Amino acid sequence: MIFPIRVDRDMEIGAITLYLDFDPSVMIVTNVTTVTNVTTVTNSPELWYNLSDPTLNLKPETLNLKPSTLNTLAIGWMSTEPMKVTEGQAVIQIHARLRNGANPIRFTLNENPLSEFADGDGNVIDGLKLSMPDAGVVETLHATSLPMEITLYPNPAQSTLNLELETFNPEPETLNLELVNLQGIAVISHPTAAISAGQHKYLLDLREISPGAYFLRVKLNGEVLLRKVYVVK
Question: pLDDT by residue (tens digit) across 166-188?
Fold first, then answer.
């Protein structure tokens, strides 16, 4: 069977990151593909996926299962040229094989904060509703709100990435910066530092970083903020 993931509006998409939970006792995921007939890009988009045990606080009540019985399907898609889609069109297809006619067949959105769609400029598409009619799932993705002013440039970046942030807390705060890949693995870690209210500037060296989509993970006093970053060569 093929489960299409559809969008609820016309848009341009530059990157997709999704973490979906499913019951491996009722289905086996065999492949994930992009829907190439809706894209106008001239370069081949990058698509990856992997399967793992869930690692975050999930929504087992959606499937009436314990978290330990679920697996997570992680999907990443990005292109340097955004693809144009219209309302109701599929952007990703999940290929699965059912186990002994099992029922129900359903995916649910994982609580992973990295799940999001981004436009061609790397901006998160807020309030996007996804549907998988065959699987019976309707979920809404919300962008992470940032309680500070933060600017990244250039983005896409080639050899260096500039980060400017401004904090307003008069008390010292502990700041940690990491550039992580779509699997959540840190490829650059900036030393932890104590910062005060005001403007702060940082420069990340990307010369040894492979092209692709990443997240800048900003930890401020334990609160985690994310921004999508594209690296091109």
Answer: 887 777 888 889 998 877 788 99
**Pairing mode of beta strands 137-141, 128-132:** antiparallel
Which token pair is 40?
């106008």
Residues in the chain: 233
> Can you tell me the distance from the alpha carbon of 136 to that of 108, in angstroms, rounded to the nearest whole number?
9
- In CATH terms, the superfamily for domain 149-231 is Macroglobulin (MG2) domain (2.60.40.1930)
- φ and ψ at residue 98, rounded to 5 degrees: -80, 150
CATH classification for the domain delimited by 2-141, as one of 1.10.10, 3.30.70, 1.10.287, 2.60.40: 2.60.40
Q: Which residue has the tokens 């993970």?
A: 217
Q: Give CA 124 to chain center in angstroms.
A: 9
User: Which helix (H) or strand (E) covers residue 173, if one does?
Assistant: strand 173-180
The answer, as to whether pTM is greater than 0.70, is no
Biggest CA–CA distance in the chain, Å, is 61
